[in-house]
Write a structure and sequence with these properties.
Elements lengths: L2 H5 L4 E4 L2 E5 L15 E5 L3 E4 L5 H7 L25 H13 L4 E4 L3 H9 L15 H4 L5 H6 L38 E7 L8 E2 L9 E5 L7 H4 L5 E4 L7 E2 L3 E4 L24 H10 L12 H6 L1 H9 L13 H12 L5
């Protein structure tokens, strides 16, 4: 790597070509409809940073960068993952690194590259297996101390103590089998490709559609409950948006390895957030909002965003029950918030 990357304290680990199952099996706890499991073949090596870009590393490029506190917790420690940046700013940081290196180029990982490196040859909910009780060794998530300190949030986090109420310095926990730290928890991580619906068949070097405004972020953050901390979980951010809990890690490739990437044929449409809900869910939301003016259009992001608080309060107060008399549980309410904001749920 170039001298700048080494000076910044970045460490890179080579990921060699290989096959893996992306997404989640039908019986995985917390599985969502956008996690269709399918085989992926990656044909090109890449070198991935062993940890997210930190506040200190990002400020070398942008000394004025600040991340506002969240729930009264400071997020600006130099050792923390850098957050409160947009997908465009994350890509610009990669371009800045590339411009100073004659041998390597830097970019964000694709979703497939991120999950391949994050899984490290495993197939469970988490890279350490399926046991939530082991989370405190490997990830900074929404644990007992955070649930106690942030008493206004739901109490459905990990029943462990990981030592941090808020974010933690990178590399504070054990890495996955490939040597990557903070794969799960601490801060969500951007992927460079536009969000898309997973195929049901095997694919090679998937990149998704060439254009779009909705991007996936992966890995969870320090506020993530087990549902969001799963390796297969996909959460969304729109171009230009920032979040206090979304950051990024970079990958690198030798410039000699850089023929143009093939672009996958665009699917009929990029991922539809409404697709996360069943037809019954949608039918009852439409019925409950039938008298709203203008009408609520569930296929329109702008329409749902316009009505976001009204929709969410209706669900929160159980005025949009599922048939026949079932109330929406916390999981379904959080899922609706994901859909409303097209971003992570906090």
């Amino acid at each position: 790597m170039n001298m700048l990357a080494q000076t910044l304290g970045m460490r890179f680990i080579e990921m060699t070509p290989g096959r893996f199952l992306m997404g989640s099996p039908p019986d995985e706890i917390g599985r969502e409809a956008d996690e269709q499991q399918h085989e992926v073949m990656l044909t090109r090596s890449f070198w991935i940073a062993d940890a997210p870009v930190t506040v200190a590393q990002y400020r070398v490029k942008d000394p004025s960068h600040k991340c506002p506190p969240l729930f009264g917790i400071a997020l600006d420690d130099d050792r923390y993952p850098c957050t409160w940046i947009s997908i465009e700013e994350a890509k610009a940081y990669c371009d800045w690194l590339s411009a100073q290196d004659t041998e390597w180029t830097y970019e964000l990982p694709t979703e497939a590259e991120w999950e391949y490196a994050a899984r490290a040859g495993t197939a469970g909910r988490f890279f350490w297996g399926d046991t939530e009780a082991d989370a405190s060794r490997f990830a900074n998530t929404f644990d007992r101390s955070a649930m106690k300190a942030l008493g206004n949030l739901p109490k459905d986090g990990f029943d462990v103590d990981d030592g941090f109420v808020g974010p933690s310095p990178i590399r504070s926990f054990q890495p996955n089998r490939y040597g990557l730290y903070d794969v799960i928890g601490n801060a969500w991580q951007y992927c460079r490709n536009v969000a898309y619906k997973y195929p049901a068949t095997s694919v090679t070097d998937p990149l998704g559609p060439p254009t779009g405004t909705l991007y996936c972020v992966r890995g969870g953050d320090w506020l993530s409950i087990p549902f969001f901390a799963r390796l297969a979980n996909r959460t969304f951010m729109r171009a230009g948006e920032r979040s206090e809990t979304v950051g990024f890690r970079v990958i690198a490739r030798p410039r000699a390895q850089l023929p143009a990437d093939p672009i996958d044929p665009a699917p009929p449409s990029w991922v539809d957030i409404r697709g996360l809900f069943t037809d019954i869910d949608v039918a009852h939301m439409k019925a409950a909002s039938a008298n709203w003016k203008p009408p609520l259009e569930l296929d329109s992001y702008e329409s749902v965003k316009h009505y976001s608080m009204k929709v969410y309060s209706s669900v929160r107060d159980d005025r949009m029950p599922l048939p026949p008399v079932d109330k929406w549980n916390t999981f379904q309410k959080d899922l609706l918030r994901r859909w409303i904001y097209a971003r992570h749920p906090y």
